[in-house]
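Field notebook, page 321. I keep forgetting to write these up properly, so this time I am using the form the group agreed on. The chain and the ligand, 5-S-methyl-5-thio-alpha-D-ribofuranose, are recorded exactly as supplied. Prediction of the bound pose follows.
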Amino acid sequence: SPAASVPAKFASGDVKIALVRQLSSGDYFEQWLAGAEAEAKALNVTLQISSGDGNNDKQALNLEQAVNQKADAIIVDHGFAQTVQPAIKKAADADIPLVAFDVDPGTPKAVALSQDDHQIAEQALGALKADTGGSGDVIYVYVAGFAPLDRRNETWTKFKTDNPGIKQVAQIGVVNSSTASAVADQAKAALQANPGTKAIFAPYDEFAKGATLAVKELGLQSKVKVYGADISTADIGVMTEPNSPWVATSTTDPSNVGRVAVRAAALLVAGEQVDPALMVPPALVTQQQLRDGKITNITQLTQAVPALVTPDVAHVPWSAS
Ligand code: SR1
């Protein structure tokens, strides 16, 4: 069928979407932004980007500002419910369309976008179970309060109940501007305190990179394997290094998720219907698969796993992308 005509406000380049981020450093957030920017360009939308850089009060102020400036739509990218929900309510009261990625908006007027975090944890833990036979000491990396990590934690909690042979011997975790190196320090201490550890469940790529570094620095690659989440070209390099302990990750294509967020916001600006809960499915990516397929970057990965690109999630009828 012929493509729908471009709404006038988009054709004239008058659409402004505020992107209000909690975090911006690290591979995941950089790729996500690149996807959001590419989609904004394709849709002739101006993206007004701010980041709290981990400062929740700053993110809340940035969000207040986006509401006061009457952006055509707002995307809230991560954040803690208690710091962003008051301003999200103001946006809803002012009828400003809003997409909340990885944070509970607290109002049904906003579109809630997430990755399927339960599936992310299930896929990574499925690999861990297959490799360990369902028993052994495991170090877990987690920080409470981040919605995606909290959902993955629900799956981990159930997994431990369902697999009594799996013993969590330590919980570590930090999210800051140098997450990977902070987690590496913590993981080294946890590994030294728990010499029987067989696996580290680290469901965020900065966690997995830190865990991998710790295992390598202690020379434990043959004993301890890492099961992570997310992927980037740099992560593919880490996973496929000779003797790398990072053997599996469950992931979306982060740049695809950024694209989906902008498409959903654009649809709302155009008055189109959008599913109130959008979810992007992940795929399990293993070290073996990357090596066998000679995959060295994200472009090659999305060619090998086309399901990582989801053009039908928040499809924009007037756009070719
Ligand atoms: C600190 S939260 C990090 C997570 O946000 C996104 O959901 C990514 O998948 C990442 O793991």
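OBSERVATIONS:
- The longest helix spans residues 27-42.
- The mean pLDDT is 97.
FOLLOW-UP: compare against the apo run.
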